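**Protein fold record**
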Amino acid sequence: MLSLWACSVCFGDPSSPLTKGLLAGVLFLLAVVLAVLGGIGWTAFVWRRRAKAGGHGSF
């Protein structure tokens, strides 16, 4: 009879290196998404500020 075992992530071992690596990967990807969205928001803010000032601003 074939016996299947779940990996430590699926099984729920919080002290496993695999679980810790998965958590670190998720947090890293979340930080990347937030950095990209922050950059887009900052660009929109600068463009709005320049438009209100009536000039092109300096680069």
